[in-house]
Write a structure and sequence with these properties.
There is one protein chain. Helix 2 packs parallel to helix 3, helix 7 crosses helix 8 and helix 8 crosses helix 9. The relative contact order is 0.15. This protein has a single domain, classed as Metal-dependent hydrolases (TIM Barrel). It has 9 helices and 8 strands. The protein has an 8-stranded parallel β-sheet. The chain binds zinc ion (ZN). The site of zinc ion has 5 residues, from loops.
């Protein structure tokens, strides 16, 4: 069994084909999927979807690039949705210096709300980082003074040092399709070094379609097997062993799919 720990199945390019996507996924042993939210609307949609399909679980949260669009009352809604029985994670949250859609201070404030909620409801964080991985590590190190952090650095592309720092904080590291790209030797190098008990795989679909389908949209959960295959090769283990390890890790972190 394989678990795709980050899929935006409520995206308009995927939502209408969910039954087909799930049967394609099951055909290659992908039998657990975390459906990840980016705002209030998708948080509600992720929960609804996860209620309809037993292999799905949901996250609730507000993505840093939408943090400045949140209306008053949105955060309170996220807090109440986090108590739903199908919700196993808080996010995706984090920091993004690439898109510059929302002011840095607003992203930081919103990220801190997610960290507090994660501690309150005892659910792991799904953490997004773009073009600020060293800053992210310093931020997380400072936040860890207020209590331990649980969560995953999703679609990881940072340096070995940042990975090591996140692991020391107790976090998991998840790789998406980028690890399969021809020019991604640096990401593969990091993927080869993550401890067995902290590694996860994901698609981040509809984005980041893995090689050999790179460039095709939308990406889908079944294609996570290509990411798994590449990581198994660089770690010199069988795909079956890596599937077993990453599945146990996802079950432990999210407390689901057992
Ligand atoms: Zn995402």
């Amino acid at each position: 069994m394989i678990i795709d720990t980050h899929a935006h199945l409520t995206d308009e390019s995927l939502i209408d084909q969910v039954p087909q996507l799930l049967s394609d996924a099951a055909a290659v042993d992908v039998r657990g999927i975390l459906v990840v939210a980016t705002d209030v609307r998708t948080s509600q949609a992720c929960i609804q979807l996860s209620e309809r399909h037993r292999e799905l679980r949901a996250s609730v949260g507000i993505h840093p690039n939408y943090s400045c669009q949140a209306n008053s009352g949105d955060w309170e809604l996220i807090e109440s949705l986090a108590k739903h029985e199908r919700v196993v994670a808080v996010g995706e949250t984090g920091l993004d210096r690439y898109w510059k859609d929302c002011a840095w201070e607003i992203q930081v404030e919103m990220f801190r709300k997610h960290i507090r909620l994660s501690r309150q409801v005892n659910l792991p964080l799904v953490i997004h980082t773009r073009d600020c991985s060293a800053e992210m590590l310093r931020f997380l190190q400072a936040e860890s003074a207020g209590g331990s952090l649980r969560g995953v650095m999703h679609s990881f592309t940072g340096s070995p040092d940042v990975a090591r720092g996140c692991i020391e904080l107790g976090l998991y590291i998840s790789f998406a399709g980028m690890v399969t790209y021809k020019n991604a030797d640096d990401i593969r190098e990091v993927a080869s070094q993550i401890p067995d008990d902290r590694l996860l795989v994901e698609t981040d679909c509809p984005y980041l379609t893995p090689h050999p389908f790179r460039g095709q949209r939308p990406n889908k959960p079944a294609l996570v097997v290509h990411t798994l295959q590449t990581i198994a090769e660089v770690r010199q283990v069988s795909r079956e062993l890596l599937a077993a390890q990453t599945t146990i890790n996802a079950q432990r972190l999210f407390g689901a799919w057992r």
